[in-house]
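Module 6 notes. Inverse folding takes a fixed backbone as the condition and produces residue identities as the prediction. Think of it as a translation problem where the source language is geometry and the target language is the twenty amino acids. Below is one complete input and output pair. Work through it position by position during the lab.
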């Protein structure tokens, strides 16, 4: 349990460092300027790579496996020491470990979902390897997008069994995913269209559409997921219609709009499962942060087109709101633990 808490802290510290580097890159202030160009590696590898690896290994009984996420997490140390090559190499090795973990689970569960997880691990490893060998930013970012997209789709399909989605519909989604991978670097328009089709499929068929009509915590998760699918749709449109887009909108409609809303939706599931604690969510605060995040994100993207001087400030606010969500949920966990300890007869 101790090592899980350490890994959670490392991943959250990676989030803080990644956001700080991102704000510096946006012109907000001049902290960690020497690693701002590696902002995307820290956010996707040091933060999300560590968290996703931890989420997978906690279900393995052998405690030795629980230390494996440290490989991704250790990259942050080398980034801070201004050793980006070593940090990047640690992320490549972390990707190989994640891929082997997915392969381990595939042997036990030989199904579509676990094949997708394996593909996501391969995409992660290739994304980190491409940047390490060639510094090809475009291809590296696209591969890391595929890593997160495939991971999220696999997790959504894993939950689809509760609403009985037909195999035909699943194969349609798989076709869209294959097309996005095929057109990754071959044809931008076709790639964007496949992303749009995936977003529309998720909006129509995912369990989020049902959860919105339920009570909490399902309603909150459903709303956060639908926000994420909306931003994925926007991401596809920015690729298909690049003349009406900006670099920030095209990149961060995916990584902030889509991915972070997915994290909002899953945090109340992942943290309790990993830390083996109950969480009593404050839905007023969660909804406040969730809605504020969408508003600031819209203003941020508009600023890149209409009022560029406000962009650094909005990027800073964006990061603060994002951190607030994790602070609120960690506070909820601590409050629950304190409440439980006060009720203990040994207190």
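Target side of the pair, the amino acids:
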């Amino acid at each position: 349990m101790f090592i899980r808490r350490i890994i959670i802290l490392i991943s959250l510290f990676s989030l803080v460092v990644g956001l700080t580097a991102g704000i510096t890159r946006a012109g907000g202030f001049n902290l960690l300027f020497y690693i701002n160009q590696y902002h995307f590696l820290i956010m996707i590898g040091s933060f999300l790579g560590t968290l996703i690896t931890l989420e997978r290994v906690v279900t393995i009984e052998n405690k030795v496996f629980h230390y494996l996420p440290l490989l991704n997490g250790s990259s942050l140390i080398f980034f801070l020491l201004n050793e980006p090559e070593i940090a990047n190499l640690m992320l490549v090795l972390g990707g190989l470990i994640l891929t082997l973990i997915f392969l381990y689970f595939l042997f036990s569960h030989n199904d579509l979902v676990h094949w997708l997880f394996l593909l996501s691990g391969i995409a992660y490893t290739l994304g980190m390897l491409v940047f390490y060998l060639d510094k090809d930013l475009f291809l590296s970012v696209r591969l890391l997008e595929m890593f997160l997209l495939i991971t999220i789709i696999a997790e959504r399909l894993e939950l689809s069994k509760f609403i009985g989605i037909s195999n035909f519909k699943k194969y349609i989604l798989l076709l869209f995913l294959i097309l996005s991978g095929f057109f990754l670097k071959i044809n931008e328009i076709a790639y964007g269209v496949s992303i749009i089709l995936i977003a529309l499929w998720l909006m129509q068929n995912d369990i989020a559409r049902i959860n919105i009509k339920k009570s909490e915590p399902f309603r909150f998760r459903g709303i956060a997921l639908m926000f994420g699918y909306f931003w994925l749709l926007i991401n596809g449109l920015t690729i298909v219609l690049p003349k009406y887009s900006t670099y920030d909108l095209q990149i961060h409609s995916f990584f902030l709009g889509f991915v972070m809303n997915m994290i909002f939706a899953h945090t109340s599931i992942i943290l309790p499962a990993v830390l083996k604690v109950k969480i009593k969510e404050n839905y007023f605060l969660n909804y406040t942060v969730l809605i504020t995040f969408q508003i600031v994100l819209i203003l941020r993207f508009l600023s890149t087109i209409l009022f560029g001087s406000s962009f650094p400030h909005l990027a800073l606010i964006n990061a603060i709101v994002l951190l607030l969500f994790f602070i609120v949920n960690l506070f909820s966990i601590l409050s629950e633990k304190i409440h439980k300890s006060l009720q203990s007869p040994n207190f």
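Reference fact for the lab report: Residues 1-162 form one domain.
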